[in-house]
Request: fold
Amino acid sequence: MDAKALVAEDEAVLRDELCAHLAALWPGLRIVARAANGLEALQLMDRHRPDVLFLDIQMPGLTGIEVARQAERTMHVVFITAYDAHAVAAFERGAVDYVLKPYSVARLAESVRRVKERLASAPVALESVLRELAAAAQPREHLRWVNASSGTEVKVITVDEVCYFQSDSKYTLVMTTEGEALIRRSLKELADQLDPAQFWQIHRSTIVNANAIAGVSRDFRGRVSVKLKSRGEKLPVSEQHEHLFRQM
Reply:
């Protein structure tokens, strides 16, 4: 099925990757415009009148939610977002689709399938789901410290002291320049509470403090790893998260 699309994503690398994957997954889709911020997306939307909008929620100028409001009942919407479980319920109840960042090609393919099905019908009202998403997007207080066990001692460790968190069976290791400790929180729970601008998930078992990164390296097989400023070990980066370091 042929259709026109606008892609709005403020990170150039992710925007280009998304367009390349869409071209492969949906040969009949013509990407008529690419936007780097919300205001540009709104202007290009009015100029090109696409059938489908692929919108990053968090963009400078105008958010993806604000852009989507202007497309009410005229265009189908897919949100590209770093949100997780706290907002997914709103997506599932609404008439928009979503792809979580860092996205997988399989999930994007499923989104493409759903959008193709919806193209047979007129776009529906978005206001109720957009209200829920706007509420979920309100700034949250991020985790500032953790209580961690080191031997028989319980330490209070501020998150700024942490080099990285790593899942370890039923516990999570807290690695600092001073050593290691354990906390009884899952990595998933920590990911929901940490500031995503400072703490990056680089592997299903590892979240690293971006301020603790000295650099990245790639071995002869092309596998990426993170070097730390104050610790000797290297941390492997899964292929799913390599995009975080492509501009470094």
Residues 12-25 form the longest helix (14 residues). The radius of gyration is 20 Å. Helices lie at 12-25, 38-48, 64-70, 85-93, 105-118, 127-136, 187-193. The chain has two domains: 3-135, 145-245.
